[in-house]
Specification:
PH-domain like, single chain, alpha+beta, elongated
């Protein structure tokens, strides 16, 4: 985590995450920028609604599995149709529970609703859930996982939380 001032007078605080960097831009316009390599100039602009190609594929797989379960029930039998039906139900649950998740790279500070530090025991990962409103007014969640820092990880998590708090996000 560093605070730095670049040549183009961008004041920012940087947090290194598990797979990406989170830049808390303070000036000229407050926003959160996520980058892979830590360089703001190389971030990609993502149009909301277009970044979740994975869910389009999941919906396609659900339709195929539903058709497969119907055909299996009709031609083979009830018990054999249970397997694709259970898979279909699980995929529908995954799609429904992740519907508001996004991988957008830039979030304006004025759109941020809340930022929470979340410790997930099932992933043994800690990170921030950033809830915000997109350009259409829909609530979205951007998940930012923090790097596992070994022995000093609790101190690292507290420093990251302080950076969000000091910059007015929490």
């Amino acid at each position: 985590m560093t605070s730095q001032e670049g040549k183009s007078t961008i004041r920012q605080a940087v947090i290194k995450g598990k797979t990406e960097y989170c830049h808390l831009i303070l000036e000229p316009k407050p926003k959160i920028v996520f980058t892979i390599d830590g360089k703001i100039s190389s971030h990609q602009t993502t149009i909301l609604g277009k970044e979740n190609g994975f869910f389009s594929w999941m919906q396609f797989v659900v339709i195929i599995m539903f058709i497969l379960s119907l055909l299996t029930y009709y031609y083979v039998g009830f018990y054999y149709a249970l397997i694709p039906s259970i898979i279909t139900a699980y995929l529908l649950y995954v799609i429904y529970s992740s519907w508001d998740m996004t991988t957008v790279h830039v979030i304006d500070k004025q759109d941020v609703i809340e930022v929470n530090l979340v410790k997930r025991s099932y992933l043994s990962a800690t990170g921030f859930d950033i809830r915000f409103k997109d350009s259409k007014g829909n609530r979205k969640v951007r998940r930012f996982l923090l790097a596992n820092q070994g022995a000093g990880k609790e101190e690292f998590y507290e420093k990251a939380k302080e950076l969000f708090r000091n910059n007015g996000y929490m």
